[in-house]
Amino acid sequence: MTAALRARLLPATVAVVLVALALLPMIGASVYTVVVLTSVLSYALLAMSISLVAGHAGLLTLAHAAYAGVASYAVALLSRSVTSDALFQLVAAVAVGAGVAALSGWIAVRASKVYFLMLSLAIGELLHVLALQWRDVTHGSDGLSAARPFTLFGSEPVVLSGYVYWLAFAVFVVFGGIVLAVVRSPFGAALRGIRDNEPRMRSLGYPTSWYKYTAWVLSGAVAGASGWIAVAQLPRFVAPGALSFYVAGLLLLAVVIGGLESMWGACLGAAAVALMTNVVSQDLGGHGPLVLGTLFLIAVYVLPRGLAGIGKGRRGRPDAIVPDAIVPDDEDGPAPTDAGVDQSPRTVKA
After folding, report:
1. How far is CA 237 from CA 47, 242, 299, in A?
2. What sign does the dihedral 80-85-87-88 (CA atoms) show?
3. What is the DSSP string of 223-257?
4. Omega of the bond prior to 149 within 30 degrees of 0, cis?
5. Among 13, 61, 111, 286, which residue's CB has the most CB atoms within a 10 Å radius?
6. Which pLDDT tens digit goes with each residue over 173-221?
7. Confidence (pTM)
8. Which stretch of DSSP H or E encloses residue 318?
9. Do 230 and 44 form a contact (C-beta atoms < 8 A)?
């Protein structure tokens, strides 16, 4: 398949899929199906936030599941004690996700490769342990229920799963669109330049740490929105397992399998994870994780460049197969693509 044909078919395919998802509650989908698809939207948006920093900034992360989980806890606590307004809770979830990312990422983004991966793992595990141990707030391993359904603009509680799904779908489209706009902007091009050759970008005057930190905080905000979607449907429950390394590892693998730089690939990988853990695993006697791991191994050998690499042949960026986290520190990698990146010197204030 030629690049031109792919460029024409992909937007049309994505549009058809989005329309089908939007119309799903109107064509007789069961409540169970709608609830499962809401969780798919949450996983897909979280995968897009991971792809933003892992695929475009070269920051392989194991912390974003914890950011989404903290946002889910914030939504549940607000619903129990402050307000049931959906928009207020959404703003709070985004702010909490961005705030926790800003606090924890200030030091982490100055590391690179394996060191950054280990720091992100430590961040995620610390938040997971906090959710387990802070029983007065989180109820520990028992989990926390939001207790009340959403309201919207002071209306009656929104209890029908289809209406809640449409709210979640709107949030997914808005924040997914923001991520796509960022990766296609000059800022996104600069991130890819930093990913490919950070010393060269620094020599051109780009404050690379600030670029990575900004992308990290933005991805934390998107992860917060995915946390809001995760507790949208009744019974609106969140448990410490949502912040665990297990979820973080599955989603990072899903993004890698989908293609590190591909948002639609990340969404497909996340959908596979959500369906396997929420649906298929129940029919396999608890052996869903084993099947999912086997599928990941097969995909690595059959699709070394991910789902987004299908039809592209063997040509492309040399390090597309191997994440930066496993490249030795003394290798700067290939020169970044000049397209979209301003090569003029920058004046960096002290």
Report:
1. 21, 10, 33
2. negative
3. HHHHHHHHTTSTT-EE-GGGGSHHHHHHHHHHHHH
4. no
5. 61
6. 999 999 999 999 999 999 999 999 999 999 999 999 899 999 999 999 9
7. 0.84
8. none
9. no
